[in-house]
Write the structure tokens for this entry.
Amino acid sequence: MEVATFLNGGVKDPRVLGKLITVTAVDVTRDLGHATVFVSIMGSDAERDATLEGLSSVASHLRSHIGRALRLRVAPEIAFRFDESVSRAARIETLLASIRPSEPSDDGPAPDA
């Protein structure tokens, strides 16, 4: 929640501002030393790459924000990764829709009453 809030209002980097970024998951190590934030970014591949660079550049600011907000003595190192699962799921849905029959046929036998 803190990551999404920060990305929504606390980022001044033009590569991140105005982009539709969704935090899909966060993996944190047991010792809270490292956190990997998985994001979904709408746009072309070039826009996605630029946005990821912008996110990497604001990671240190996010780290201090998280540390203060959660009152942590040591905040985790933060790395951003693009979450491929959203685009993969959309591709699978498209493939499934293309192989489904458009409408079920009514030529089959009637069910027994």
About this structure: The chain has four helices and three strands. Residues 89 and 95 are 10 Å apart (CA to CA). The chain has one domain: 2-84. The radius of gyration is 21 Å.
